[in-house]
Amino acid sequence: MKSLITRSLSGIVFLAIMVGGILGGEISYACLMLFIMVVMLWEFYRMTLGEENYGLKIIGIVSCIALWAFSLPVIFPSSARYIFAILPFTLWLFMLIRQLYQKAQKPFVDIALTWLGMIYIAVPLALLNITIYSSPPEYKSVGQMYFDYNGLLLLGLFIILWSSDVGAYCFGMLFGRSGKHKLFPSISPKKSWEGYIGGLVVALGTGYLMSYFNFLPFGIIHSLIIALL
Q1: What phi, psi does 223 have (nearest 5°)?
Q2: Contact present, 147 and 73 (Cβ < 8 Å)
Q3: Which of 54, 154, 66, 46 is nearest to 118 (CA)?
Q4: How are beta strands 188-192 and 182-184 bridged, if at all?
Q5: Whether 165 contacts 106, CB under 8 Å
Q6: Whose CA is closest to 133, among 119, 145, 121?
Q7: Environment class of residue 112 by beta-carbon count within 10 Å: exposed (0-12), middle (13-18) or buried (19+)?
Q8: Given phi > 0 = left and psi -120 to 50 = alpha, else beta, which region is 149?
Q9: What is the 3-state secondary structure (H, E, C) of the chain?
Q10: What is the pTM of this model?
Q11: What pLDDT is recorded for position 81?
Q12: Mean pLDDT throughout 114-126?
């Protein structure tokens, strides 16, 4: 019961921050996602590169920020975006040279882990920028650069994810506590197939309802496929 209360309270705070940041406009969205990305990268590098290797961590985080900023079609002028496009490659070259002259036990493994942080965290968030910004057809026809920010689309995708988590937790607590049908015990001992199926069903139901009430700009079939993924 105490765990449920803690989860609920922390979930409410997290939900308020996410919804406020997404619906607050382009600047609040950018600040929110930038903060989330940096925290995720630091935690990832702490787990993979260890407590030290601060140079590689900083290079990796700055490279990821540059890649993410380059994917933003607004906020930054076009000249700055060119700098963001070149900066990661410059830092990667510096990282390679730096590792060659350092007496590291596993220099190429450290380089690979640094790049993995970008692939695993920064690239999906950069693609998210491309997803929620769209250029209206009338501007495309005349070759002008104008983009609309669609925070509701991003919020809809998050709602499907959140509903899946809630459904998995509730179904797992109700039907999977016997421990007879474990999902991946070597990774997460408490995850069950009952929770997985429950999360999938709830996500599909949420995707259907959001499409039915025109919260997502897709047809029902496409919304169900997104929910299934």
Answers
A1: -65, -40
A2: yes
A3: 66
A4: antiparallel
A5: no
A6: 145
A7: exposed
A8: beta
A9: CHHHHHHHHHHHHHHHHHHHHHHCCHHHHHHHHHHHHHHHHHHHHHHHHCCCCHHHHHHHHHHHHHHHHHCCCCCCCHHHHHHHHHHHHHHHHHHHHHHHCCCCCCHHHHHHHHHHHHHHHHHHHHHHHHHHEECCHHHHHCCCCCCEECHHHHHHHHHHHHHHHHHHHHHHHHHCCCCCCEEECCCEEEEEHHHHHHHHHHHHHHHHHHHHCCCCCCCHHHHHHHHHC
A10: 0.77
A11: 66
A12: 92
Amino acid identity at 26: E
- Cα separation values, 162 from 18, 44, 65, 158, Å: 11, 22, 26, 6
Q: Tokens 């009338």 — which residue? A: 138
Which pLDDT band, with edges at 50, 70 and 90, does 144 fall under?
A: very low
What residue type is assigned to position 126 of the chain? Answer: A
pLDDT tens digits, 62-74: 989 988 888 887 6
